[in-house]
Write a structure and sequence with these properties.
With 526 residues, this protein is of the alpha/beta class. It has 19 helices and twelve strands. It folds into two domains: 141 residues, DNAb Helicase, Chain A (Orthogonal Bundle), CATH 1.10.860.10; 235 residues, Rossmann fold (3-Layer(aba) Sandwich). Strands 3-2-4-5-1-6-7-8-9 form a nine-stranded mixed β-sheet, sandwiched between helices. A three-stranded antiparallel β-sheet has the order 10-11-12, with helices on one face.
Amino acid sequence: MAGTSRNNKRPQPATIIKVGANETGKLPPQAQELEDSVLGAIMIEKDAYGTVADLLRPEVFYKDQNRLVYEAIRELAVKDQPIDILSVGEKMRNMGTLDKAGGAVYLADLTRRVASTAHLRYHAEIISKKATARDIIALAAQIEEKGFDETQDVDELMQEAESGIFEISQRSQKRDVTQIDPVIEEAFARMEKAAKNTGSISGIPSGFHALDKITSGWQTPDLIIIAARPAMGKTAFVLSMAKNIAVDHEIPVAIFSLEMSNVQLVNRLIMNVCEIEGDKIKTGKMSKEDAKRLNTKINIMKGKPLYLDDTPSLSIFELRSKARKLVREKGIRLIIIDYLQLMNAQGSSFGSREQEVSIISRNLKALAKELDIPIIALSQLNRGVEARQGVEGKTPQLSDLRESGAIEQDADMVCFIHRPEYYHLYSDDKTGKDLRGLAQIIVAKHRNGATDSIWLRFRGKYAKFQNEEEAIDPDEIGIGAPSNGESVSIQSSMNSDMGAVSFSQQMTPDGAVYNSMGEDISDPLR
């Protein structure tokens, strides 16, 4: 499986550090008096636990005794049992931890240390922050030690450090309850911004009119899953859409391709924009008309805000770092990932691949919220589709998603790509619609809107999706090779990130093809 070749050890930031100076002679950050006071307050104040429950975990307590006391308190709270000095003592006795913590005398001493419960939450916040500081110190020490080990892979160590920091930050992030007024103001501000648009699109337009009518454009901060079986054209669909967004509307888009290289992606884009068949691009054998179209239309893509990253086995932590930078430096407003099942959550350990995919999808949704942009992730469907019969049977369902539980739950929108023609289904028995050359885009889940399906035209030889109503110019299809032996020169270049395209060749009346050095390159096995 992709992404399993690297070390998947999970960094374990120490959350409990014993009393004593470290190598620098400094004591770890701590607030023992506040720990005692907070625990005492919880045992004498009826609603005190509910005030601090979201801030405190057993691991945040510096003193071992206090950690054991809080474990018992939390067990009582989970079972909705009363919390006081007697119930906590009895619970600890049943758990076998009372004597380890110092017995009933220690619990009584905690309650005597309570001066006031007025600032209980503030004190709990200090305890939590001290624990976070200890976590950071422990992680830094761990990374420092490995940094001196020359057998360690530096790239893996960087990922481990980033993974550890991310884990600590996720654990320490707390969001307060918000009174509704400022939220209403933000909602009105967004409505006013949407109202200023001349059309009905409030989000990022896909360029597919019927789809945009359903979605009103890709909305922030949505996680959109686009899923299909192999050979349905997932990559062609998002590349067609990326072209519409970045080239036609000049909205910055980033594509993370875990399966194809940057040059392969650009070749697909050239096929799409210039409407030249893939074999001609790979071999460089094209007609005069093809060459003219290439030289003319290739310039459409230059200078446009489309950014490619073909890092294989990309981890969710690498993606987060790169995405933040792209949004900050390039103003990226949409991220596309091709595709989700090739990602990994390196730096963490899991019992199954489904658990790992769950972490990835959850983090993609969190990243979309953090950056306030839509994120589109491609996904594979399982083989359930192949076993079903008929037009309706071949239509994808939410249950066909691989590792579907987590993906379906985290996604704000799930879209399927379905081409009946692939299954030799050429017409709809109910409507009589000719399905040849068409692809159905099914919005199967839409958290903030309606579900529906639309049809797009799929032109496979150009890896291109387009609006169904758009006419296809017959003059641009099936153009034959020149018969007069004239030379076809194609000069085009792209930046080094995208690779270079450069051809110079001659086609003779008998079909032979020669390059600029006079060599016969018509034999495909040459």
